[in-house]
């Protein structure tokens, strides 16, 4: 470690923490500009402290300097000398007080530049922003241009100004420790939840000597969290397993582990998938994702197909940068790409968290002005790969200490983070160990901190419509306004369960598909003031067999019109994919209306709408020999035509297998 010299290069050069040897040789004479005390008693006490330091009796030396301070309080140099001793002994609070007292009693001159710098750094490390600000401002007045770390101090001055203003305008309430049975370990951090908030994942170390393992706490019926348990013997091992992330449906886990056999770097990212209640053996994510350096702190998108993480690999913008990779159709992950500016800076950019909506990224960095150390920032996605300028989350989510990872639930209501307990440095002494317990905290998310889009979810199970047995199916979610695939999950092969995340303000088409089964089409319209809350929806898939049919829920027409609206292209393109997969299948596109209007007009309208679908399919390469259209008007209603909701159900297009 680098030792700190005080009162200039020729002043009292003191030892670093854990490096107290040779202190007696570092005691130097006061510089010529500073007059030695003329008082005989003061000089005697100063010489006594010098001798005690040479004898390595540092506690006695501090006691002697205390006497000197009490008897001759105007002699500021003695306070500064005491501050240097206390700093080297690890009593930073005592050193802070001594430097503050000493500098208030000496003339502001260049010879004191190092003390002003050190006072600012110490005060900032304890969140004493006003003292730090005053010290840095004084430093700027007296420091020579050659002063070491002057640019850093100028930046710290901006930090103090930002922090003092932020504390005058707090954003929300301070996080509070999560109640028992959580926080039962000495260290717990990196909280992450599934989209339905039923499972809380975190990294835990029961004791200071324990390695890192992953733990799961399950939500009780009353909403409280249950006793944490190790996630799985297939995951936790004799190696460290830490910094985990879980997909919205709780079926995909990515975590960091260090020094495993056949690892690529010193810490790599590994993936495991859950089937039923069992996790698969972890697999290294490979060279496309991991580097020969440190790769950790993963954050999965809601569908588990996009991964953000932190890496120290070469070619970045700072010591640590944030990278992103996506799961490809062939099952491989794309080569990881640096997220770039404005997210990554020349500083440390770490602990990314992508909200379930996929539109807002949170992370910690010391490369931007904040409250000091690592602060949490948020930025919003703009287009496919660009991000808005990061914005500091403010006080009290950010403090003078280094902040760790942040997690915000899909509904934007609750936030989670981890924090160290307050320092317990004994007054007048120093601590050999600085490992403070770390706990999980929770908070209500203030509006300014929320993700740009609020999310909810639909979940249920996929079954065979005939046997009622669970099915493994692909469940895909498309934004109808853009025809972009926004979610892609797979239902569990044992239980058939699935979870899909939806964002407020969007109109979605959802499709469930399994081999040799008809495509199931569902619609979720949250583009207007529809109720936006979780839904339970079981899906029953019909086999691809003659006589079976399915409603196409995402074909849209204006009232009494038969021209397909642009939002229909998502459904039509999925239908084309289905027909290309099953090339021997012949279909009838059947049109239906409600009973409003003349029967002849309804027959004609339903026929033209069905024909419009057939024409789109044939225009896109599907042979007309496989296609037939027929309008049934108000015939075969699905519900009574007694309400607008029921009539809407009856206005439909169906796909029949011939």
UniProtKB/TrEMBL annotation:
Task: Indicate yes or no for the key word Membrane.
Answer: yes
Alphabetically ordered keywords of this record: Cell outer membrane, Membrane, Signal, TPR repeat
InterPro entries assigned: 6-blade_b-propeller_TolB-like, Bact_OuterMem_StrucFunc, OMP_bac, OmpA-like, OmpA-like_sf, TPR-like_helical_dom_sf, TPR_rpt, WD40
Question: Looking at the Swiss-Prot or TrEMBL record, what is one Pfam family this protein matches?
Answer: PD40
Where is the secretion signal located? 1-28
PROSITE patterns hit by this protein: OMPA_2, TPR
The TPR repeats are at: 113-146
Q: Can you say where in the cell this protein is located? A: Cell outer membrane
Q: What is its main location?
A: membrane
* Gene3D superfamilies in UniProt: 1.25.40.1040, OmpA-like domain, TolB, C-terminal domain
Q: Which residues form the OmpA-like domain?
A: 544-658
- This protein is called what? Outer membrane protein OmpA-like peptidoglycan-associated protein/predicted negative regulator of RcsB-dependent stress response
Origin species: Hymenobacter artigasi
């Amino acid at each position: 470690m680098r030792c700190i010299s005080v009162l200039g290069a020729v002043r009292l050069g003191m030892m670093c923490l854990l490096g107290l040897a040779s202190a007696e040789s570092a005691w130097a004479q006061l510089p010529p500009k500073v007059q030695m005390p003329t008082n005989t008693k003061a000089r005697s006490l100063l010489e006594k402290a010098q001798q005690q330091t040479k004898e390595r009796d540092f506690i006695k030396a501090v006691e002697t300097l205390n006497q000197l301070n009490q008897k001759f309080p105007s002699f500021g140099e003695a306070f500064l000398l005491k501050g240097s001793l206390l700093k080297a002994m690890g009593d930073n609070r005592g050193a802070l007080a001594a430097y503050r007292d000493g500098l208030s009693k000496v003339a502001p001159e260049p010879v004191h530049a190092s003390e002003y710098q050190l006072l600012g750094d110490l005060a900032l490390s304890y969140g004493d922003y006003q003292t730090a600000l005053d010290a840095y401002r004084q430093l700027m007045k007296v420091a020579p241009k050659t002063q070491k770390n002057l640019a850093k101090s100028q930046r710290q001055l901006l930090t103090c100004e930002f922090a003092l203003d932020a504390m005058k305008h707090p954003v929300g309430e301070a996080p509070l420790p999560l109640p028992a049975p959580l926080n039962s370990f000495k260290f717990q951090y990196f909280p992450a939840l599934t989209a339905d908030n039923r499972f809380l994942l975190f990294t835990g170390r029961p004791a200071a000597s324990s390695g890192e393992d992953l733990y799961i706490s399950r939500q009780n019926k009353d909403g409280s969290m249950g006793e944490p348990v190790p996630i799985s013997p297939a995951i936790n091992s004799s190696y460290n397993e830490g910094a985990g992330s879980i997909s919205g449906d709780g079926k995909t886990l990515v975590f960091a582990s260090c020094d495993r056999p056949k690892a690529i770097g010193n810490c790599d990212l590994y993936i495991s998938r859950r089937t039923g209640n069992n996790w698969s053996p972890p697999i290294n994510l490979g060279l496309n994702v991991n580097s020969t350096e440190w790769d950790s702190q993963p954050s999965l998108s809601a569908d588990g197909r996009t991964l953000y993480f932190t890496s120290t690999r070469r070619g970045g913008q700072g010591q640590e940068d944030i990278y992103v990779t996506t799961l490809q159709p062939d099952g491989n992950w794309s080569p990881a790409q640096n997220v770039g500016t404005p997210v990554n800076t020349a500083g440390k950019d770490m602990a990314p968290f992508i909200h379930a909506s996929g539109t807002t990224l949170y992370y910690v960095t010391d490369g931007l002005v904040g409250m000091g150390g690592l602060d949490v920032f948020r930025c919003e996605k703009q287009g496919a790969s660009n991000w808005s300028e990061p914005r500091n989350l403010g006080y009290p989510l950010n403090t003078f200490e280094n902040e760790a990872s942040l997690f915000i639930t899909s509904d934007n209501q609750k936030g989670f983070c981890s924090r160290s307990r307050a320092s317990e440095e004994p007054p007048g002494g120093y601590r050999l160990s600085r490992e403070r317990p770390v706990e999980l905290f929770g908070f209500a998310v203030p509006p300014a901190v929320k993700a740009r889009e609020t999310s909810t979810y639909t979940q249920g199970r996929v079954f065979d419509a005939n046997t009622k047995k669970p099915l493994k199916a692909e469940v895909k979610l498309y934004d109808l306004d853009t025809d972009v695939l926004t979610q892609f999950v797979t239902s569990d092969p044992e239980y058939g369960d699935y979870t899909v995340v939806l964002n407020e303000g969007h109109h979605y088409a959802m499709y469930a598909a399994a081999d040799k089964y008809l495509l199931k089409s569902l619609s979720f319209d949250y583009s207007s003031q529809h109720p936006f809350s979780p839904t339970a929806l079981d899906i029953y898939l019909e086999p691809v067999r003659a006589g079976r049919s399915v409603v196409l829920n995402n074909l849209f027409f204006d009232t009494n019109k038969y021209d397909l609206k642009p939002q229909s292209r998502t459904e039509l393109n999925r239908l084309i994919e289905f027909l290309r997969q099953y090339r021997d299948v012949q279909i009838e596109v059947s049109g239906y209306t409600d009973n409003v209007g003349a029967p002849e007009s309804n027959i004609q309208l339903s026929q033209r709408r069905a024909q419009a679908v057939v024409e789109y399919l044939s225009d896109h390469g599907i042979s007309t020999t496989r296609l037939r259209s027929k309008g049934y008007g108000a015939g075969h209603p699905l519900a009574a035509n007694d309400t607008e909701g029921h009539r809407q159900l009856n206005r439909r297009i169906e796909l029949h297998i011939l």
